[in-house]
Each structure stands twice: as structure tokens, then as C-alpha cells.
């Protein structure tokens, strides 16, 4: 049961979180990193994972990821000076983690707590208090105001994006950033103060034209269409996920498939690059 002091503290903590969330690029970018990481890990069972931010009545409240086997509560700290305890207050990161552990135990919940920090030189990972150590991990995640720049400097972010990108290790940074930007837009539009299933995030992202992931089922080409395409000299092509990719010499491109393209190709029977490009 919450005492009045805890209720007041959590109400004020949540208000502060809401206010900070208005400019919370750090929280948003970390959420996108976790989204793409979870998609890579749970690509066959997207329904089994859900995310939520700014949890009410919760001590570790910035981000919850509900995995199939446990709930992982994240506290994100984008600050130069970070300590587990402060002499000026009884309410500290340590006390929040201790209270969260107590709450989870009362619910017989399988859980983990994570402190995410943005200062590479921080020593919080070496000084986890004994009272929370059994349930707590820390993770460094850099802060930049620009998602493009963040992905460039973060190998972990790039690796997660490459796993789910159609071109895999051949993906350009621009392609990785474009995919991340789609998920950022979806996440911000989700109203993520309630739990959002990973499958719903992916479905919303799929509504973006020219967006493609390695986890999408491949569209198919009919034999009639393949015969026409195979007759165009110098053309190489493939259908991966929901996109048609083509190349002729130094020229290459892509378009959503089929979107009427297949039937138009069958009807017009292009025989040259110029004729095909006019259709695509």
C-alpha cells in the first residue's frame, strides 16, 4: 500500500516526466533503439512484446518493455553528474530502485531494472548499491540532438538496424536512418503512455510508402511478369518484402510492389529500360 508521502512523490515525479517528455529526445531515441532491437530479437513473435513510457504510480518509470519472460523497467538519465545517492534528499535513484523492487516482489513479478546514462565517463556501473544489485543493470547510451549523428556514432544502433534492414550489412547509413526515422514518428504518434505491442508499431510503420523490412513476407511475381522482365536486356531484379528492386547498368531503383505494377507490365510488355522505367 502507498503511504501519502509516496503518493505525493510519485504524482510529482510523473508530472516532471511529462514535462521533460516534451523535449525528451534522449528518451525517444533510446525507445527507437529498443524497438529495432526487439524487432530483431522477436521478429517471429512480435505480439509477445509491448512498450510503455512515463508510467504512472511507478518508481522506475521512463520506459517499460514487457518481454515474454520478464518486465524490464528503465530509468534514463541524460546528465553530466549522476550518482545513485544524493546527500540533500531521501529520494534518490537508489530509493526509487529499492521501492520498485519491493513493488515487483509484492506482485510476484519477474523483472529487471536498468539505469540508462549518457555520460561515457560515469562510474554508476561500478558503484551499483548492494541493496539493488541483484536486480539492476546499467547501460551507456550516448546523447545527440540529431538521430542521424547518433546512429553514425553508435555501432549497437547500426547493428540492430542492419539486422532488420532489407539490405543487411550492405545498407547505407542513410537507409538505416530513414528506417529509424519511420519508427521515431510511429513511436511519438502511438500515445505510448499505454502499452503498445511491438506488432502494432511494425504495422503502423508498414503504412509508410517505400518502407521495407527484412521481416516482411516477400511479395510474389507471376510467371507472365517474370517472362517479360527476363526478356529486357541487362535487367536484374528482385522482390524483397514489399518492394521491387531493379538495376540496369549504373541505373537502379525501387518501388512498392505490386500496387498495380505487375498488371501494367503484363499489359504493356516493355522491352527496353526506358519503357520499364516509365512504368515503375
Explain this structure to me?
This protein has helices at residues 4-21, 25-41, 93-106, 147-153, 155-164, 173-189, 198-206, 223-230, 261-268, 273-279, and strands at 50-53, 63-66, 71-77, 111-117, 136-140, 196-197, 235-240, 243-248, 251-256. The strands form two sheets. It has a six-stranded mixed β-sheet with strand order 5-4-3-2-1-6, with helices on both faces. A three-stranded antiparallel β-sheet has the order 7-8-9, with no helix packed on it. The protein is 41% helix and 17% strand. It is of the alpha+beta class and 280 residues long. The termini are far apart. The protein contains ten helices and nine strands.
Helix fraction bin = 40-55%
Biggest sheet, spatial arrangement of strands:
5-4-3-2-1-6
Question: Which structural category fits the helices and strands?
Answer: alpha+beta
Mean pLDDT: 90
Strand content: 15-25%
The largest sheet is: 6 strands, mixed
Shape: elongated
Tally of helical runs: 10
Radius of gyration: 24 Å
Would you count the extended β strands for me?
Answer: 9
What order do the SSEs take from the amino end to the carboxyl end, as H and E? HHEEEHEEHHHEHHEEEHH
Low-confidence stretches are: none
Distance between the termini: 63 Å
